[in-house]
Design brief:
The protein has a three-stranded antiparallel sheet, with no helix packed on it. It contains one helix and three strands. By secondary structure, the chain is mainly beta.
Amino acid sequence: MRITRAEQTIEPDCAGVVAAEYLEISEDTPILHVQRVYFAGDRPIELANVRYHPNRYRYAIEFKG
């Protein structure tokens, strides 16, 4: 299957037990929650839910006209 597009949302969240352990932070520490859905045509084929340490994440985007 060929991925033709993806949709992504980035929103604030608080670290739960598992995320806090992996990120080496305290529970309820503010983190970034990223959800990405990959599509092949109109069909969703993969969902990624990722939690990022707020001090170790950088978001960059380029707009072209």
